[in-house]
Amino acid sequence: MEWLVAAAIATLTASGVYLILAQRTYTIVIGLGLLTYATNLFLFATGRLAVNAPPIVGDPQAPHTDPIPQALVLTAIVISFGMTALTLVMAVRGYFESGGDDVDLLGPEEEVAKERR
Amino acid sequence: MNHWLILPILLPAIVAPLLALALRHDLIMTRTFSIGSMVLLVLLGGYLTAMASDGATRTYALGEWGGPVGIVLVLDRLAAVMLLLTATLGLGIAIYSLSGCDKAGPHFHPLLQFQLMGLNGAFLTGDLFNLFVFFEILLIASYGLMVHGGGAARVRAGLQYVMINLVGSSIFLIGLGLIYGVTGTLNMADFAVKAKQIAAADSALLQTGIALLVAVFGIKAAVVPLHFWLPGTYANAAGPVAALFAIMTKVGAYALIRVFTLCHGDAAGGAADWFASGWLVWGGVATLIVGTIGIVGARSLNQQASFAGLASMGTLLIAIGGFTPALGSAAIYYLIHSTLAVAALFLVIDMIIRRRTGFGDALVAAPRFVHGGLIAATFFVIAIAVIGLPPLSGFIGKLLILSALAGQTSGGEGGGGVAGWPWLWGVILVTSLLALIGFAFSGTLVFWRRPSDKPAETASPPIVVPMVAVGWLLACMVLMTLLAGPATDYFDQTAGQLFRPQGYLEATLGEAAAGGGS
What we know:
The complex is a heterodimer.
Chain A: H1 2-20, H2 25-45, H3 67-98, H4 108-116
Helix pairs in contact in A: 1-2, 2-3
Chain B: H1 7-22, H2 27-52, E1 58-61, E2 72-75, H3 77-97, H4 108-124, H5 128-146, H6 152-183, H7 188-194, H8 203-221, H9 229-236, H10 239-245, H11 248-262, H12 271-276, H13 279-297, H14 301-322, H15 325-355, H16 372-387, H17 393-405, H18 421-447, H19 464-482, H20 484-499, H21 502-509, H22 511-516
Antiparallel strand pairs in B: 1-2
C-alpha cells in the first residue's frame, strides 16, 4: 500500500517536473497539473494511510483517519484547480497577443516586429 | 477577543467585491471607495501599531477555536508595523492610479484591494497553512494586476511569473505536508514547541520540510539563485503594479523572520540554529551583487529599478541572515525604507514613460519632455534614497545594518557581530558606489542628453495627482529620517520581542502548553 502510493506520487512528480522544463506553455500547464496532483496525493498521505476507517474520532482507540490532511487537500485542490484554469486563460491570451506559445520573454527583435505589425 | 485584529483583512475583503460587482461601471464611486478603504487601512495600521507598542502579543481566534487547533491571528509589533507599511504603500498606489492607470484595464481597484487583503492576512496569521492560503490570495490578485493593461511582452512575463509561483505553491504544500506529518501541527507557535520534541528518527523529515519552506520563502524574497522571475516581472508590469510588488518580496523576508525567530532557542530540532548559521548572509551577498550588476548594466529604467529592488533585498537578507537582535532591528528599518523607496522609484519612472512617447523607458537620449525639471528633481531625490546616500532614510538604514554587522550597538541587546563583517562592509559599500554610478548614468542620459535634431514632445499627462502619490511616499521616508530615533527604539523593542518568542507562544497556546516545551 505504502509502496503503491509512494510510487504514484513519485511518477506524477517526475512527469510533472519533466514537462515543466519544456519550452511551450501548454506542456508546462500539463506539467503543473501533474505536479499539483502529486502534491495533493502527498498531502493526503501525510495523515498516514488508513483503509476503511472513518475520519471521525469517536473513540480514540478505534481505527480512524486523520481528518486535517483531507481538509488541507480540499483547499489545495480548489486552489490548484482555479490556478490551472487561470494559467490556461493566460496562455491562450499570450498566444493571441504574441503569436506563439513560447515561454521566453520577447527579445528586442520580436518587440520591434510586434510594434510594426 | 480583540476584534480590531481582523479588520485589516475584513475591510478590503468587503470593499473588493463591492467594487467588482456593484460599482464596476461607476469610476468615480470605485475610486472613492478604493481611496477611502486605503485611508481607513492606514488609520487602522497606525492604531494597531500604537496598540502593539505596549509589547503584549494579541491573538484573535477565528470562530473562537483557540490555538493550536483553530486558526489564530496574531498581532505583535512586527505584524503591526508591516500592516502600517502595506497600507501606506497601498494608499500611495491607489492615489497614483487616479491619474489614469486604473482605466488601462478592468478591475484595477478590486484587485488592489484583494492584494491588500492577502498581504494583511499573511502578516497577521499565526498558522502555516493559513499563511499558504493568504499567499495564494495575494498571488492570485497579483496575477491579475501583473497583466493589467495587457500587451504581448507583459502577458509573456506574467505567464512566467504565474508558473514559477505555481511551482512555489506546490513546494510550499509539500513542505507543509512534511511538517504536519512529523509534528502533527500547522500552528506556528505549536510547531515551534513540537519541533523540539520530535523523535530523532523524524528529524531528517522535519529538516526537509523546513528546507522546502525556506525555498518557497526564498522564491518570494528573490534570493539568488531563486531570483530569476523578478527582473522580467517587475520590468514588464505597469508602473503602479511594479510599485506594489515592491512589498511582495518583503512578504518572503517577513515569513523567514517570523518562522525562524519563533524556533529561536530551540536546541534539539536545530531549525533555528541551522538558519542562524549564516548561509542566508551569503545568499544576501550574492543577491546584492547580482542586483548591482543589473543596476549598472540595465538597458531601460524599469529594468534598472527592478535590479535596484533586487539589490535592496540583498542588503535586507544580509541583515536577516545575521540573525542577531540588533540586525533584526536594522533589518526592519531598512525593509520599510526600501519598500517605500523602490515603490516611489517605479512610480516616477512611470511618469517618465508616459511623457517620452516613442522612447518609453529605454536608456537612450530622447527629446525634452514636459515637467522635465520637476520629474528630474524627484528622480534625483528618490535615487538618493534607493542608493542609500545621506540625508534620506536609506543612509540611516544602511548605517544601522553596517554597525550591527560589526556588533557595535547603542542599545542594550547587541548580540555580537557577524563573522567576516569587514567583507560584508566592503560588499555593501562598493555596491552602493556602483549603484550610484548606475543611477547617475541613467539620470544624465534621460534628463540631460538631447538629440539635437528632434522637436520637443507635446504629450502632457496629468502631473498633480502622480506627484501627490510620489510625494506621499517621499514624505513617509522623510518622516522615517526625522523620527529615526523613536523609530529605531520601536524596532529595537520589536526585535527584542521577536528574539524572545516565549510571549508569542504563551499568547497563542496558553502558558501551560508553551512552557511544556522548554
